[in-house]
Design goal:
mainly alpha, two-stranded antiparallel sheet, 16 helices, 4 strands, 76% helix, globular
């Protein structure tokens, strides 16, 4: 393998595995915020217990995920010097804002939320978790602003030295490659968070030894997770299809079949000069798989939502296979989101910045041996972090609710009539 191939393999693996953390973190924080909002507005302790239980899973995933993001920062600086040198002034500006938002503001608010249980007023404490959710969304926004520039460079000028300079920050924020894609990604994280909550709740509810107050916690979590997952899947499908027109106009090779791509090859050569502009067949396979899984997931979640009527999903023996299916589906939204990221990134090849910088010119002048060694080292590190994260999440999900963030549960009173609704 060449140095370019190792650099692409290394970053592709790192970015894909890092995105698994992002999908769960961004989706789960909004569910926790909703749970705590219900706790603050209704005063019912069950919602506070829900926010603390799922908040612990969120904190675990967030903490481990930061390490994978740091690895990506190292790789961009070390392996993609050509990208940084030519377009760093434009590409790097949104990433700098993302760093300030994610590592400073979001982390500060999260720390205050963790240690603020029982010490801050309920409304102030609620504001903190919503602050974490908003800054997490802003973090995703700035990453997508930067990525949209790679997909469709706008708002720049080339100076006398041949370096790309930022000419219009507003153009970056109104990039046609940004908003549908951003909404699509955020919706995908809601699906990941919703299915995680629903799947774990279904698993816990199948265990006969649950205390009554814990049964109510997971019953409500199951319903909320299914609803959020269903709405998120609807938005994912809608905003996914909404991007097809833009892709066909601006990156025609991404969705073209093999025959159509061969026919368009001559057009691309005439427009961009000599080169191989036909993307890998794996891109089309990943796209078709992503669409198929999203539609099936919507169908499954819709049926599960119907089965929440009168708690048939929990009480009826014939509905038990759906409960098992929800648990088995936990990793599916995350893996499907990774497929979508693969389509977006691999589908623009051979460009690092579409029409402006080829990937072959963006890689650092390093030997294949050096990149082989760093690829092995970073891969072991990232895979290890992913395994540790899922192990910690599984342990936290299996624990009895209560005692999170140093908070002891208050006696829970359950309205029997409300439970049966």
């Amino acid at each position: 393998m060449s140095a370019l191939e190792y650099a692409r393999l290394q970053f592709g693996l790192t970015a894909s595995l890092h995105f698994t953390f992002v999908a769960i973190t961004l989706g789960l924080v909004f569910l926790v915020a909703v749970m705590q909002t219900r706790f603050t507005t209704t005063g019912r302790e069950v919602y506070g217990r829900m926010a603390r239980f799922w908040g612990r899973l969120y904190v675990i995933n967030y903490a481990v995920g930061i390490a994978t993001g740091l690895v990506m920062e190292f790789e961009i600086g070390l392996n993609w010097a050509g990208l940084s040198k030519l377009t760093g002034d434009v590409f790097g500006a949104p990433l700098a804002l993302e760093t300030l938002v994610a590592f400073v503001l979001e982390s500060t608010l999260l720390g205050l939320w963790i240690f603020g249980w029982g010490r801050l007023g309920k409304r102030l404490h609620l504001g903190l978790i919503w602050g974490v959710a908003v800054t997490a969304l802003l973090s995703a926004f700035w990453v997508m602003v930067s990525n949209a520039f790679l997909q469709h460079p706008v708002g720049y000028r080339i100076d006398d030295t041949g370096t790309v300079r930022l000419a219009s920050f507003g153009a970056l924020l109104t990039n046609s490659a940004l908003w549908f894609a951003l909404t699509h990604v955020v919706a995908a994280t809601l699906v990941a968070g919703g299915v995680l909550v629903a799947g774990v709740s279904a698993w816990r509810l199948r265990r006969r030894s649950l205390a009554e107050e814990d049964h109510e916690l997971f019953r409500r979590s199951l319903r909320l997770g299914i609803r959020v997952g269903l709405v998120g899947t609807f938005l994912v499908i809608g905003f996914g299809y909404a991007q097809f027109g833009w892709i066909d106009e601006n990156q025609p090779m991404k969705m073209a079949g093999r025959q159509a791509a061969v026919e368009r090859q001559a057009e691309m050569i005439q427009r961009w000069g000599p080169g191989d502009y036909i993307v890998s067949d794996h891109v089309r396979t990943a796209l078709d798989s992503m669409i198929g899984v999203a539609n099936l997931l919507f169908l499954v979640l819709f049926v599960a939502w119907v089965l929440t009527y009168r708690d048939a999903l929990i009480r009826k023996r014939w509905a038990r296979p759906m409960s098992w299916l929800l648990t088995l589906l936990i990793p599916v939204p995350v893996l499907t989101a990774v497929l979508g990221w693969f389509v977006r990134e691999e589908g623009r090849q051979p460009w690092a910045v579409y029409g402006l910088l080829r990937t072959a010119d963006a890689v650092s002048p390093m030997s294949a041996g050096a990149l082989r060694g760093s690829t092995f080292g970073f891969s072991v590190l990232i895979v290890g972090l992913v395994l540790v994260d899922w192990w910690l999440l599984a342990r936290a999900a299996a624990r009895k609710p209560g005692g999170e963030f140093g908070q002891e549960d208050e006696p829970v009173r359950i309205d029997r009539q409300e439970v049966s609704v």
